[in-house]
Specification:
Two copies of one chain form a homodimer. By secondary structure, the first copy, chain A, is of the alpha+beta class. Chain A is built from seven helices and eleven strands. Helix content of chain A is 25%, strand content 35%. The structure holds a DNA duplex.
DNA sequence: CAGTGGTCTAGACCACAGT
DNA sequence: CTGTGGTCTAGACCACTGC
């Protein structure tokens, strides 16, 4: 019969045990890396050494170090040890939010209106964008989001009706397709393209901009189960809107 | 004395054991979620049930499910169970690459030239941007990156010399400060702002653009050890450059 | 060959939230 | 009170790799 083992083996800093042990180990090592004490290329202690330092089992140490690998801070090689990674590619987490919450976060009233809604057989352009067969049908929507009574963002959306047939029954007259799709369709991957353009006459008119104004364009194509579900092109007034991205030391 | 336990307890799909067991469990559950078989709100099997299904210990199941929590796919509540998350905020991983590799990835020759380099006591503007004291010194650099002989991107950089005193000895005449900093200064966090503007006369001249061209601006402020290390403003020609972001189901 | 990490086990105790 | 997840242990076997 197995013996009940005392929980804490104690090293020295025995106070606050709110954070779990593997979390504390992770933070300790992370701290030494970020402070520069352990520079890129430095070999961090072996698992069995940390095991002794923290008075815990190898699984616990392993969990912390495995997490650090996922965060891209260290790299581990068998027989050799664990090394602080050289920062090579940096990634930023760009949070693509729901437009309504985006507007409300600015403390403004949100408005939505559907300017156009067409159901059609996929055109050549549609087929290129969503990788469709010519027999597929799509729903094309042009809508405008507003903030505080002013035009905020133009949405040009294409929905693959073969992937989301229920969308055909929705009018999207008073609520945007984005949130509807999010609540209904499981997502697995998406690609984003971000670029700047000068507003053309049509866009400028719909967004209430002067001719020649700069616009920020975000295009997103969402994939699930091996096919593209939807494509959306969002056009923002360039000087009224700013994308903010937080940094993340993600693995790459 | 502990008994050596047979490694595999086998359920049914016993073939390929290249992927580890916890990885297989993770993929299985992930697959059911992404396929829509387990929709948002669905309660996935308890750990002890999966333990039986896969014929493994609870730790192995727990590892898989803990990973799914970190990926934002499920949520776990004690006494209640584990539930498929409703997708609320979606995040995209925006990869901010080194400009040189960016250019070379396009198959073009990369060029760099330093247009201005000033070392000075922090101005009011500098102090606001990097949160400095008035006694701090900064290095200000204006540089141009080119691709295939054409101007590609303008870099306006500010380096906090209190954080990186070694930078004062660098001329940055023939190599960009970005890669130099990356190899030298540990990073912990950064903020990005992305927006579109119309090129002013000066910028248009330096980038070889027509008046009124749209530009994509990326500003990045890098933090380490509680202070800002550097700030950089990159100005790209809007229609020649496109930011690409991959999707990531990161926790939020 | 020997040492490292990768993975797994069969238990255990605890915190917490429903009932 | 009971059942769930959160964490941890003291082992174990294996794959890989540098010597």
């Amino acid at each position: 019969m197995a013996v009940s083992v005392p929980k804490q083996a104690e090293s020295e800093t025995t106070t606050d045990r709110r954070p779990s042990l593997h979390e504390r180990i992770l933070k300790d090592v992370e701290g030494r890396i970020l402070s520069g004490e352990w520079p890129p290329g430095h070999r961090i202690p072996f698992e069995h050494e940390l095991t002794l330092q923290y008075g815990c089992s190898r699984m616990t140490v392993n969990k912390a170090l495995t997490d650090l690998v996922k965060r891209g801070l260290i790299e581990r090689r068998r027989k050799s040890g664990s090394y602080v990674m050289y920062p090579h590619t940096r990634s930023a987490v760009l949070e693509i939010r729901d437009i309504k919450s985006e507007v409300e976060a600015l403390g403004l009233d949100y408005g939505y209106e559907c300017l156009m809604r067409t159901q059609r057989k996929a055109t050549v352009s549609d087929r290129l964008i969503l990788e469709l067969r010519s027999t597929d049908e799509v729903l094309a929507i042009l809508a405008r989001h507003s903030a505080g009574g002013q035009p905020f963002c133009l949405e040009e959306r294409l929905i693959n009706l073969s992937a989301v047939p229920e969308a055909a029954a929705e009018s999207f007259a008073t609520s945007a397709p984005g949130p509807w799709l999010i609540g209904r369709v499981p997502w697995s991957a998406a690609e984003h393209k971000i670029r700047a353009v000068v507003a053309d006459k049509h866009t400028a008119g719909l967004l209430g901009l002067g001719l020649g104004a700069a616009c920020l364009i975000i295009e997103r194509r969402t994939r699930n189960n091996g096919r593209y579900v939807t494509h959306v092109k969002l056009t923002y007034s360039g000087d009224r809107h700013e994308l903010v991205a937080e940094f993340a030391p993600t693995r790459s």
